[in-house]
């Protein structure tokens, strides 16, 4: 086959980390005196962390935020989230079929890219959980791009590192942000439901296909002919 | 107005507990050697706890479950969940507008019922978090019924305790199970999105209206004329 690439979001797609992230962000906000309904965090998991904090502070920050203090508070919340998430690393597991899909993709000749914008520290945690370095041709992390999803930078870079045309790549993600970023980059996208986002929301974000999880994804890709092997 | 009742689910509707329950169930399964994708737990939050455990064991239990040992294992997982949830009680907060809605409902002449099937221990935790006993006319807990949602027993009982006809009550919940149970009981239902379940799933379960959370619910009920004041 021609050179084709599978670009994988990591959190919620390959690693069961979405709900852990929700609790860690929640605890970080609480530590700063701000109670945020968890569903509001959940919907923003997978978007740029700085943007997540900014949006939630604007809505729920109340008296805790003034123009001068907002940036410092945002940095503090992000640092706390990072600390709590590292401490909760023992609670992470690969999602069913994640390792098998990476291996099957590589063996079928796809260039496999992990296209995340999480911090290098968080990415190292996910990488340890997956234990699949030998299947992966390239990675991106938050250190590689100025803005994370829904900006297209991560997907643009992943496509370049894969060395393929955008239309020869496919983005696999669990959040609305993955599809929005992929759409801007001209990359088709497939959603998995393992991040807990509803089907209508995923479809509205631009995913062309939606499956339950990566355990059924390989079969679906092949069956659909979305990428021919 | 005629005697009318508001029946409230508690977890995820009035108290921000859904995501805490997910993590506690996850930890209980892991303690027994069984990794369950968190989204599979999330979708079952609010259903009967014994049914939740049975369904997840059947799908993910693998070698851990044989016919003889399943009941004992299920009891062990439920007990662990209860212990972890009690320990995590400090992580619970009322959802925005929950207290205000209970008060507004009572002051407008509605009979306010908390219609949960959680254990008395878990209900006591939620009650402490809410601190709204004076607004509430009646409650149900898991001790009152043999089967929790999606069975209609909880809603049937809540309607009886409210002393109204089913069509003069309205069930307010965040999970698909609340609408299914209410539908069987002949009670109309309104969904809040704070449990993190997608709009299409909520609508498919039979909710007639869907709003973001209880903070906008009172206005919506009055505006819609779903229950006239």
TrEMBL record, chains A, B:
One Gene Ontology molecular-function label: phosphoglycolate phosphatase activity
Lineage top rank: taxon: Bacteria
GO BP terms: DNA repair
Entry GO CC: cytosol
Listed Gene3D superfamilies: HAD superfamily/HAD-like, Putative phosphatase, domain 2
Family matches, as InterPro entries: HAD-like_hydrolase_sf, HAD-like_sf, HAD_sf, PGP-like_dom2
Protein name listed in UniProt: Phosphoglycolate phosphatase
